[in-house]
Design brief:
By secondary structure, the chain is an alpha/beta fold. It has a domain of 238 residues: Amidase signature (AS) domain (Amidase signature (AS) enzymes). 40% of the residues lie in helices and 13% in strands. It has 15 helices and eleven strands. It has an eleven-stranded mixed sheet with strand order 1-3-2-4-6-5-10-11-9-7-8, sandwiched between helices. The chain is globular and about 60 Å long.
């Protein structure tokens, strides 16, 4: 294969070729760097990129393999990291000029796991300011006049543009699912607490999730096997073995997966073409339509209250320190105005909603099918509306964007699958069934 084509391969294909010595980590990294050089001026996915350092990592990994040592599952595979995760060898600036040049002393837990698995940390990707709504510089690879979504804008765009096969991001409202649907890639927001958050910018302990972006389900499983697991520094980390993502993905399901179609109270916010496409897909796969209890309509306000209060507590000092966007300033003021009683009620309700959904997974379906977003990516003035992600982030359930649909304009439109708590690997296997049955 010509070196220029290596960047187009999936991470799974690259891992096989690297393990068999058919290609080197240096060659793969050079191919990705060449692709970045070719499209970065237009897409603008990266905020920090050091090609020589990336190549040095790759060369060290090649020497490691040639010395006969065991290699990790991500050996030699370039991975892009959202710029809210600490990296000891690259700046971490949180999308804010206040943190320009900030150099952490240690890697975030998820970055350390990537390195331990053999990944090449190729660079830091653009995030919106403090991972909130103020847009960054990144553009959508499918239409440069449209947003890639936020806040994990650079990570989704980098995978979609073929710059890297894998990237990591985060979600506190819709920051993994929304960019992945707009950019037409797979995006997974795992169960709350499945991926450790030590060394990541803390917006909201209650709502923060770390997730990933990939161009195939196999690649997502490869990534998740590397980054999921217990983190002693994260008080919500799960003290049990992480799911075996690749193993589960390739096992035949014991029964044919079942789907529940849920419109949510926000259904009318989706555009007509998206509603028609999701309804048609639900019919095609035999999904059973489920109506959520009326009280879940309050979930969107609960998520907003929790996010505002906890971000005000964690990040409010940046308002006093220097210039911030109006969106961020307004959120901090909102969080400071919410009473303790209102906040605690919102947290209580979030747990209640999650418990109320358990019956669906026990008796009706293996996954809930619902839109990922209102429609295709809007223009660059906004990062898009996370309204179809909010409730599932509040409940902490795993959510997966599956890039199955296309808008009348030819732009990506994703389908969101929601799984039972802690059943993230099964969710990927269920998604494979959905793709097969829809195709």
């Amino acid at each position: 294969m010509p070196p220029s084509d290596l960047a187009s391969l999936t991470a799974t294909q690259i891992s096989v070729d690297l393990a068999h010595g058919m290609v080197s980590a240096e060659e793969v990294t050079r191919a990705c760097l060449d692709r970045i050089a070719a499209v970065e001026d237009e897409v603008q996915a990266f905020v920090s990129l050091d090609p020589e350092h990336a190549l040095a990592q790759a060369k060290a990994l090649d020497r490691h393999r040639l010395s006969g040592y065991p290699i990790g599952p991500l050996h030699g595979i370039p991975v892009a990291v959202k710029d809210i995760f600490d990296t000891a060898d690259l700046p971490t600036e949180y999308g804010s000029p206040q943190l320009a040049g900030h150099r952490p002393r240690d890697d975030a837990q998820v970055v350390a796991r990537l390195r331990a698995a053999g990944a090449v940390i190729i660079g830091k990707t653009v995030t919106t300011e403090f991972a909130y709504f103020h847009p960054g510089k990144t553009r959508n690879p499918h239409d440069l006049n449209r947003t890639p979504g936020g806040s994990s804008s650079g990570s989704a765009a980098a995978v979609a543009a073929g710059m890297v096969p894998l990237a990591i991001g985060s979600q506190t409202n819709g920051s993994v699912i929304r960019p992945s649907t707009f950019c037409g890639v797979f995006g997974l927001k795992p169960s709350h607490g499945l991926v450790g958050r030590t060394g990541a910018l803390s917006l909201s302990r209650t709502l923060d999730h770390i997730g990933g972006f990939a161009r195939s389900l196999e690649d997502m499983a490869l990534l998740m096997d590397a980054i999921a697991g217990y983190d002693a520094g994260d008080p919500d980390s799960r003290r049990y073995a992480a799911p075996a993502f690749r193993q589960t993905l390739h096992e035949p399901p014991p029964i044919t997966p079942r789907f529940a179609f849920v419109r949510t109270p926000m259904w009318d916010r989706a555009d007509a073409a998206t509603r028609d496409a999701i309804e048609a897909l639900a019919r095609d796969v035999g999904a059973e339509e489920i109506e959520l209890p009326a009280y879940v309509a309050e979930g969107w306000e609960a998520q907003r209250a929790i996010m505002a209060v906890e971000m005000a507590a964690n990040l409010g000092h940046y308002v006093e320190r220097g210039a911030v966007s109006p969106q961020f300033r307004d959120l901090i003021a909102e969080g400071r105005s919410i009473t303790a009683t209102q906040y605690l009620a919102a947290v209580r309700d979030g747990r209640r909603y999650a418990q109320s959904l358990a019956e669906i997974f026990e008796q009706v379906a293996d996954a809930i099918l619902t839109p990922s977003a209102k429609g295709p990516a809007p223009d660059l003035a906004t990062t898009g509306d996370p309204v179809f992600c909010t409730f599932w982030t509040l409940t902490g359930l795993p959510a997966l964007n599956v890039p199955l649909l296309t808008s009348p304009e030819g732009l990506p439109v994703g389908v969101q699958l929601i799984g039972a708590d802690g059943r993230d690997a099964r969710l990927l296997r269920t998604a494979a069934s959905l793709i097969e049955r829809a195709g």
